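FAQ

Q: What does a record look like?
A: Structure on top, sequence underneath. For example:
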């Protein structure tokens, strides 16, 4: 609550300096736990999803070209490219 009261425009708790640094300092621990439970075949969906969210949120660019292509093919949603400006649509065969 303090983070949101301090910065009313805070888009995510991970972007708060104090909380963000705390999470960053513990990420190796989370990766270790997720790795162990995965190797043991134990379900830990909340921990695994939390790590995936954390990695996705802090990444400036992720390869989602397959998702974009599927959305464009099934719904003509168009897509953007990293090598050219503009919005594109392909007639998929």
């Amino acid at each position: 609550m303090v983070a949101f009261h301090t910065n009313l425009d805070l888009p995510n708790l991970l972007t708060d300096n104090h909380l963000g640094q705390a999470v960053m300092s513990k990420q190796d621990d989370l990766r270790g736990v997720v790795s162990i439970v995965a190797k043991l075949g134990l379900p830990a969906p909340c921990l695994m999803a939390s790590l995936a969210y954390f990695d996705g949120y802090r990444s400036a660019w992720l390869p989602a070209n397959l998702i974009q292509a599927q959305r464009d093919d099934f719904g003509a949603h168009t897509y953007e490219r990293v090598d050219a400006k503009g919005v594109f649509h392909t007639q998929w065969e």
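Q: Is there anything notable about this one?
A: Residues 17-40 form the longest helix (24 residues).
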